Amino acid sequence: MSENVKKWYVLRAIGGKEKKVKEYLETEIVRLKLQDYITQVLIPTEKIYQIRAGKKVSKERPFFPGYVIVEAAMVGEVPHVLRNIRMCLDSSERSLVNQHPSGRRRSTASLVRWTNWQPVKRR
After folding, report:
1. Dist CA 31 CA 33 (whole Å)
2. 7-113 belongs to which CATH class?
């Protein structure tokens, strides 16, 4: 059996539902026995410190709200499973977002290849 090449992909989830998407995806991976093809499911978060009632409280919030990052090998059933996750945006909603400035429509594929990303510094 040849080695599966795994790459990073981005799933666009409904805002605020990233954790539920991650939990559901992890249960589907176990149920369908896809552990060899999907190795990591991540939600990029950042730690925020707030002062409440005079005390410093730490809180985690999504660094990229609405996105779940998946390391996967696109073999067999994996693309179908990732495209049909509950609480992810479907093609009809994505077609409004994926408009090219020239007026041409871009691909409505639900998976975006994650290339050369670097965290954005927030103020």
Report:
1. 6
2. alpha beta
Residues 65-89: tens digit of each pLDDT: 989 999 999 888 888 888 888 888 8
What does the DSSP assignment read for 32-95?
TT-TTTEEEEE--EEEEEEEETTEEEEEEEESSTTEEEEEE---TTHHHHHHT-TTB--HHHHH
The SS3 assignment for 24 reads: helix
For 101-123, what is the mean pLDDT?
49
Domains of the chain, residue spans: 7-113
Instruction: Specify whether the CB–CB gap between 71 and 8 falls below 8 A.
Output: yes
* Contact call for residues 114 and 95 (beta carbons, < 8 A): no
Q: How many residues does the chain have?
A: 123
* pLDDT tens digits for range 27-41: 999 999 999 999 999
pLDDT (average), residues 30-57: 92
